[in-house]
Amino acid sequence: MATSTKSLTFSLGGQLEINRLGYGAMQLTGKGVFGEVADRENAKKVLQAAVAAGVNFIDTAEAYGPKLNESLIADALHPYKEGLVIATKGGFNRPGPDQWVPNGNPDYIRENIEGSLKRLKVDTIDLWQLHRFDSNVPVEETLAPVAEAVKAGKIRYVGLSEVNVAQIERAEKVLPIVSVQNLYNLGNRQWEEVLDYTTERGLAFIPWFPLASGPDTLADKISKIAAAHDATTAQIALAWLLRRADNILLIPGTKSITHLEENLKAADIELTDEEFDQLSK
């Protein structure tokens, strides 16, 4: 397994310098990622604390809420601090809590983009990601309005989510791709091939659900390593990802400022080669 010498920044698209420990805002919604977050003032404080602590990459989506998460980010952080990169996504219908229906209809994608621009109060979306491929719509059609938005200066960079290598290559025939956001963590490495592909290509790899520490078989190893570093299990899971590849951007989410601060301290943990290898088995 390839490993990196740990750099704590990554250049997205070769232009946007990003601190690799970012923040995922999905939890700042109601139950089932639907509706308004229960404590809106606390949610705003968490976002503000993240930026104050040096986070300059925040991940959201039109589907979170839906729509409400993007508006919350603007309410909490606009006017945005210089250098803050906000990534959003489009391409899901949300009929109810925990319901996610891919919609790659070009008109719907166009509507998602225009809505995100308004809700985030920006003229240009730094990173717009296609939330899922829609099996009912050719991706060439889905991405046509995205390419138009890039040409019009409404989107700077484009990414994909939950895709395989063939899908990345197919999308790249329509427009350049700079990032991939797939499920990946210490305990679930089903997208190993995609991670290695993005590393070789210099694309960002953004694991969603990064805090999962995996099956019970890993519990003893993690607890011993965590104790050696006076760290939590979650911090070790994040430190392993940072070490795994230098194109990984982390977006752990939380509704707690205490947990936020704890997550960010994972950047200070230096796993030994032996510890990294033990966790990687």
TrEMBL record:
Entry GO CC: cytoplasm
Pfam families: Aldo_ket_red
GO molecular function list: oxidoreductase activity
Keyword list, A-Z: Oxidoreductase
Domain NADP-dependent oxidoreductase: 20-280
InterPro entries: AKR, Aldo-Keto_reductase, NAD(P)_OxRdtase_dom_sf, NADP_OxRdtase_dom
Keyword check for Ligase: no
Source organism, top-level taxon: Bacteria
Descriptive protein name: Aldo/keto reductase
Organism: Chitinophaga pinensis (strain ATCC 43595 / DSM 2588 / LMG 13176 / NBRC 15968 / NCIMB 11800 / UQM 2034)
